[in-house]
């Protein structure tokens, strides 16, 4: 099977280093701060800032595989490329790539619902499921229009909105800590570890908050000087986000107790702003949240549509245009927003986040195993880093599954069924392609160049 590249020469170099960082941080900050802070605090308690630190460490280890691969073979839709080179054009590569794409679509619906929740909070209508779903669908539709207008529109808008939201979030956090101090709220009493398993499980959500760096990997072929800048963009994005996350965690924790953070859950920053900064601070935080979540959805739609386009051109997934005009990329934009919109309507934020975390961790483990098993010598990667990243993912996934088994076992059933369905569907699809039969058993063919 011939490998195609869907990146036209006109698209290469269309994303600057700053634009790539803006897209990466756009996805991370949109999900990590506004959608997940409450859920992380619920599991980790007063130690929830440490969960972000642990998430950053695990993510940095994980990024090693992606950076080494992207430096060797920068590609738009890069995760599909990594898996295909590691496992050959068979069931494992196609299924894991599709899991990654699904986790990214799940992230879109997660952040879109967070946008809607914050938009409705001033009207005390954030509990209205119909309005939340309608606004989430509206944002996903807007993200489609921006992406349909071209790469430079996405890069420019992401850069502007990222600057606004990072500056605004830092201002909120500093003001909240200045007003409340670190001796109040969640940090008022003695801080000690009461449930190590729950703290570990919270890291699954923290990792999900950092997974936006894969947006950069999936757009690698379109970044200026990709061999040099993809890795730099990833590490700069992670560094910016961990600093922002810690500032916000301390700002929220200084203003609210853990029960108050859990009660506010999906709008914890807005809830923390009111006692610390008054009504003006409350509305300021709402505006920043809307900016952050909007840019997050736009950047995520951009990345996942590129990845699905590459999977289609590599003949790893079937494609039908359903009578639509235009090329594969325009079709994938439509499919991406339709699936994200459907998820935004059907699932609440907690279950959306749980599904995204499970899918991502499973895919990430397959990436590390494949790179370690088949490619480490070719890309000069250190085995101990690859295996440490693999082990860290496994520990977090086991702890997360254990907690969910007690609190929401149905989400584990849904995740297992969907993962099984993805692998089965890919095996059936690829078994009909003679050139893929040799690799459908999970064995690796010679990497395609």
TrEMBL record:
Keywords: Cell membrane, Membrane, Transmembrane, Transmembrane helix
A GO cellular-component term linked to this record: plasma membrane
Tagged with keyword Membrane: yes
Signal sequence coordinates: none
Primary location: membrane
Transmembrane annotation, as ranges: 21-41, 47-67, 87-107, 127-147, 154-178, 198-216, 236-262, 282-305, 326-346, 352-372, 384-403, 409-430
Subcellular location(s) per record: Cell membrane
Molecular function GO terms recorded: transmembrane transporter activity
Membrane topology qualifier: Multi-pass membrane protein
Protein name per its UniProtKB record: APC family permease
Organism: Erythrobacter aureus
The organism's taxonomic lineage, starting at the top: Bacteria, Pseudomonadati, Pseudomonadota, Alphaproteobacteria, Sphingomonadales
């Amino acid at each position: 099977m011939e490998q195609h590249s869907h990146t036209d020469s006109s698209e290469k170099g269309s994303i600057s280093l700053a634009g790539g960082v803006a897209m990466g941080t756009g996805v991370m900050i949109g999900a990590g701060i506004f959608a997940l802070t409450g859920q992380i605090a619920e599991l980790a308690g007063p130690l929830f800032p440490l969960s972000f630190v642990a998430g950053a460490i695990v993510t940095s280890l994980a990024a090693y595989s992606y950076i080494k691969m992207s430096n060797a073979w920068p590609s738009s839709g890069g995760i599909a490329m990594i898996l295909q080179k590691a496992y050959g054009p068979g069931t494992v590569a196609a299924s894991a790539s599709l899991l990654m794409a699904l986790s990214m679509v799940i992230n879109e619906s997660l952040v879109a619902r967070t946008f809607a929740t914050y938009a409705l909070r001033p009207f005390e209508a954030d509990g209205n499921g119909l309005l939340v779903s309608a606004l989430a669908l509206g944002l996903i539709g807007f993200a489609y229009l921006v992406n349909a207008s071209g790469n430079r529109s996405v890069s420019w808008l992401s850069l502007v909105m990222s600057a606004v939201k990072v500056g605004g979030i830092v201002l909120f956090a500093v003001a909240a800590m200045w007003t409340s101090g670190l001796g109040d709220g969640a940090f008022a009493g003695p801080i000690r570890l009461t449930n190590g398993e729950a703290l570990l499980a919270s890291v699954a959500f923290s990792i999900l908050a950092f997974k936006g760096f894969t947006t950069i990997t999936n757009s690698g072929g379109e970044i200026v000087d990709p061999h040099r800048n993809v890795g730099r963009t990833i590490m700069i994005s992670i560094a910016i986000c961990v600093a922002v996350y810690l500032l916000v965690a301390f700002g929220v924790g200084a203003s609210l107790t853990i029960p108050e953070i859990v009660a506010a859950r999906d709008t914890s920053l807005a809830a923390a702003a009111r006692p610390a900064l008054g009504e003006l601070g409350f509305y300021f935080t709402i505006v920043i949240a809307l900016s952050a979540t909007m840019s997050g959805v736009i950047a995520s739609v951009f990345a996942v549509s590129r990845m699905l386009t590459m999977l289609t051109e590599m003949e790893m997934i079937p494609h039908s245009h359903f009578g639509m005009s235009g090329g594969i990329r325009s079709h994938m934009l439509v499919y991406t927003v339709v699936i994200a919109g459907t998820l935004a309507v059907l699932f609440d934020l907690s279950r959306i986040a749980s599904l995204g975390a499970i899918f991502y961790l499973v895919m990430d483990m397959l990436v590390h195993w494949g790179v370690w098993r088949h490619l480490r010598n070719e890309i000069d990667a250190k085995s101990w880093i690859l295996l440490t990243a693999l082990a860290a993912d496994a520990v977090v996934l086991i702890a997360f599954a254990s907690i969910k088994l007690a609190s929401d076992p149905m989400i584990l059933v849904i995740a297992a069924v969907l993962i099984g369905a993805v692998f089965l569907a890919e095996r059936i699809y690829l078994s009909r392609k003679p050139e893929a039969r040799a690799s459908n058993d999970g064995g690796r063919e010679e990497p395609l160049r």
